[in-house]
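Lab notebook, bench 4. Still working through the backlog of constructs that have no structural model yet. Next entry is a single chain of 135 residues. Request: give me the structure tokens for it.
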Amino acid sequence: MGAAVNVGVQASDIHTVLVVEDEVLVRLMIAEELRSAGFQVIEAADADEALAVLASITDVSVIFSDIRMPGSMDGLELAKKVRANFPKIRIVLASGNLAAVTSVDHDGFFLKPYEADEIINLIKTLLDQKSPGEQ
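Model written out:
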């Protein structure tokens, strides 16, 4: 069985999205939707795993992260570290609770349950704009 080929899409046109979500089924669902939309997707179960990915992979364009996660830090702390250390990466957050999201710099927020199409549309829009690190 051959690999799928996107005709007319160059490798430089494919963006990498790092999905950070501790709920396996939720992570699998959004990761599959993003792949179907043409993104390369890397999955991480928590913020520590996400930071390890960022330390070794340099072409991540967007992080889509849950806020409430187990581990040494939540999605808000992850967003702060990413913004400080990787300013070109776009940050999109999701949570069942809207209250804490205003405490951190981010590029988008979705209240759970969310629609994958809305996330995909926002990510595409963000990638068409200059990132904070490119100003």
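Notes after review: The two ends are 44 Å apart (CA to CA). The longest helix spans residues 24-36. Flag for follow-up if needed.
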